[in-house]
Amino acid sequence: MPNDKDDNKVEYFTSDDKTYKVFVYGTLKSGGEIRGLHQFEGATIVGKAKTEYPDYELVDLGAFPGVFEQGEHYIQGEVWEVDSETLSDLDGIEGYTGDPATNFYQRIVVPTTQGKAFMYVLDRKTYQSVADTGSERISTFDQTQSWT
Fold first, then answer.
1. Residue 66: enclosing H or E segment and its boundaries?
2. Domain architecture of the chain: domains with CATH
3. Phi then psi for 80, rounded to 5 degrees?
4. pLDDT of 89-134, one tens digit each?
5. Which residues are CB-contacts of 141 (< 8 A; sequence separation ≥ 6)?
């Protein structure tokens, strides 16, 4: 995965060299009143999706969710195709700087049912103590978690 601020194109993303796929699972999903990607001019929904592997855990941070790696669940969400400007906006919203020492969320590449996409995840060691894993806003069914 690229770490530089320009985010050099990763070969498995779209053929258009200025778009990226992003998997979202919380307030960025369609209909999100504050930050839903449907409000971004440079974003087009690809479709509903879930992670290909049950390697994650959805958590409630109060006003929004987060995901930890090394969990035991699939995550339900949406894949969006975004342009470079929208990806940069998302990085700002998610506190992603490209520097693991200063990131709020880390940005990783995950396989989803709509292809590989960027996903924002939290560092478990840093945020475990403030994350609510039993929140009523997290629905778990058949090993799949979703934010409601």
1. strand 65-69
2. 19-124 (3.10.490.10)
3. -120, 150
4. 999 999 999 998 999 999 999 999 999 999 999 999 999 999 999 9
5. none
Q: What is the mean pLDDT of residues 17-31?
A: 90
* Residue matched to tokens 């919203």: 93
pTM (predicted TM-score): 0.87
Identity of the amino acid at 52? E
76 and 67 Cβ atoms separated by less than 8 Å: no
CA distance 111 to 119: 10
Q: How far is it, in rounded angstroms, from Cα 120 to Cα 92?
A: 12
Tally of CA atoms within 13 A in the half-sphere of 23 that contains its CB: 28
